[in-house]
Write a structure and sequence with these properties.
The chain is an alpha/beta fold and 299 residues long. It has one domain: NAD(P)-binding Rossmann-like Domain (Rossmann fold), CATH 3.40.50. The chain has helices spanning 17-28, 50-61, 76-90, 113-140, 154-158, 164-184, 228-235, 274-286; strands at residues 8-11, 32-36, 65-69, 95-98, 146-151, 189-197, 246-250, 253-256. It has an eight-stranded mixed sheet with strand order 3-2-1-4-5-6-7-8, sandwiched between helices. β6, α7 and β7 form a beta-alpha-beta unit. It starts with 7 loop residues before the first strand and ends in a 13-residue tail after the last helix. 41% of the residues are buried. The structure holds nicotinamide-adenine-dinucleotide (NAD). Nicotinamide-adenine-dinucleotide (NAD) is lined by residues 12-13, 15-19, 36-40, 42, 44, 51, 72-74, 99-102, 122, 126, 151, 153, 196-198, 200-203.
């Protein structure tokens, strides 16, 4: 018995890296999968039919069920067709995993409009596009056990200084996921985020650098495959209790983030005097922030 027997999944960005590892595991666990990948370079701006077809063929050769799809997730029209491919080929669509991504790094003061727009388009608009089309299918077929799994990043959660576009796009996806968790729960959909850590082409420039992780192709602990277990669990029917959460996965660690909670609040029954509000914030909030500004530049 596979953990995803009888389930149908659409995975974007599944021709390479983490997406490919997820697709292969889902298929090995019995899911029928649509392997979407535009075949873009790491910084976007190109296409290659190869990656999606190679992974789909690999899955089929191993006895699984897969079809390749090379839709561009930035296209509303093409992502509609992507979701329909699953329904046409496999009769339904239970699981959507949004993995597709590009990076175009720069400090905020050097970032140009194209860098900003392209990264927002692939990650945030792309995740909206697929999710929008999937949600229509799920709403029409309510009563199932549907799953939305969106890939986000520590870059947004921790505030990477060289990736303002990517950090913003990924935190936009966190907000989108929280909204879907509330909106779609009644239709049998759980919506969660995975913040992965893995050695792929996106992180290979970190190889040999002094980071807390040992980024290396020869380190199995930081492999794309080692991200997969919680993604698989989120896709399973057993995880119906888990909704609206962010889970970090990789380097041998699986972590649950807390959702934002207000830690201090000052209130007034009326209109604040400016100095009064400032004084209340100084008194109440300063003591709640234990460390100095965590985002302060380290020199
Ligand atoms: N590798 C990490 O440590 C890490 C860390 C944090 C977040 N992430 C996120 O995890 C996801 C997977 O990253 P990866 O490291 O496997 O990267 P990757 O570059 O190996 O894979 C990303 C895939 O997305 C595809 N893609 C890009 N634009 C597309 C588009 N418009 N339409 C369809 N497909 C498109 C690419 O062709 C590529 O195959 C991404 O969302 C990334 O931002 C990765």
């Amino acid at each position: 018995m596979g953990k995803l027997d009888g389930r149908v999944a659409v995975l974007t960005g599944a021709g390479r890296g983490i997406g490919a590892a997820v697709a292969e595991t889902f298929a090995a666990e019995g899911a029928c999968v649509v392997v979407n990948d535009l075949g873009a370079p790491m910084e976007g701006g190109g296409t290659d039919q190869g990656p999606a077809h190679e992974i789909a063929e690999k899955i089929n050769a191993a006895g699984g069920k897969a079809v390749a799809n090379t839709a561009d997730v930035t296209s509303f029209e093409q992502t509609g067709e992507l979701i329909q491919t699953a329904v046409r080929e496999f009769g339904k669509m239970d699981i959507l995993v949004n993995v597709a991504g590009i990076i175009r790094d720069s400090m905020i003061f050097k970032m140009d409009e194209a860098q900003w727009d392209s990264v927002i388009a692939v990650h945030l608009k792309g995740t909206f596009n697929t999710t929008r089309h999937a949600s229509v299918h799920w709403r029409e077929n309510r009563g199932g056990q549907f799953r939305l799994i969106n890939f986000v990043s520590g870059s947004g959660l921790y505030g990477s200084p060289t990736q303002p576009n990517y950090a913003a796009a990924k935190m936009g996806i966190v907000g989108l996921t929280f909204s879907c968790a509330n909106a779609l729960g009644g239709y049998g959909v759980t919506s969660n985020c995975i913040a992965p850590v893995a050695f792929t082409r996106m992180t290979e420039s970190l190889e040999g650098k002094a980071t807390v992780m040992n980024y290396s192709a020869s380190n199995p602990r930081i492999s794309a495959q080692n991200v997969v277990p919680p993604v698989l669990y989120l896709a399973m029917e057993d995880s119906a209790w888990l909704n609206g959460r962010v889970i970090e996965s990789g380097n041998g660690s699986i972590g649950l983030f807390s959702n934002p909670v207000m830690t201090r609040q000052v209130t007034k029954d009326g209109v604040w005097e400016l100095d009064e509000a400032i004084q209340e914030m100084e008194t109440s909030f300063r003591s709640a922030i234990e460390s100095p500004n965590p985002f302060a530049r380290k020199s």
